[in-house]
Design a protein that fits this description.
By secondary structure, the protein is mainly beta. The protein is built from two helices and 15 strands. The longest helix is centred in the last third of the chain and has 5 residues.
């Protein structure tokens, strides 16, 4: 799939400069709203993924990912990677170390909903290495 064939429901937005240091590869961010609930539309080029990270909160918090286009990955620490397609929903509890991003051969877009809570902040950790990333497809049948 070429970039020009990749249509998403919401605008792709600008290159994601604010969080670029926490991503491998190019991502794009279009904020949908920051009122009440922070919701962003995030697009990853093929191979792009964010670092391992934790959505911290003292109560509530966490993140909900709603896959809308292309094909991607979600992985929680110590868990098998999960293949994401349009319509996939991932509920990431506060405090859970995880990452998300595109497949190696596909663009991917998800809506990211920041679940409201107390003292919410993102803790950014190490990148997903090329070696880890290259092994993902072997772990999941049909991915
Ligand atoms: Mn996350």
């Amino acid at each position: 799939m070429s970039e020009h064939d990749f249509d998403t429901i919401f605008p792709r937005g600008e290159t994601n400069e604010a969080f670029a240091e926490y991503f491998t590869g190019q991502s794009y961010l279009h904020m949908l709203t920051t009122e009440g609930v922070v919701i962003g539309n995030v697009t990853f080029e093929p191979g792009c993924r964010n670092n391992w990270h934790i959505h911290q909160a003292s109560s509530g918090g966490g993140q909900i990912l709603l896959a809308t286009a292309g094909s991607g990955w979600y992985q929680g620490e110590g868990e098998q990677p999960v293949s994401l397609l349009p319509g996939s929903v991932v509920v990431v509890p506060a405090g859970k170390k995880h990452w998300h991003g595109a497949k190696a051969d596909s663009w991917f877009t998800h809506i990211a909903v920041a679940v409201p809570g107390e003292d919410v902040r993102n803790e950014w950790l190490e990148p997903v290495t090329d070696e880890e990333y290259a092994r993902l497809g072997e772990k999941v049948q049909g991915a």
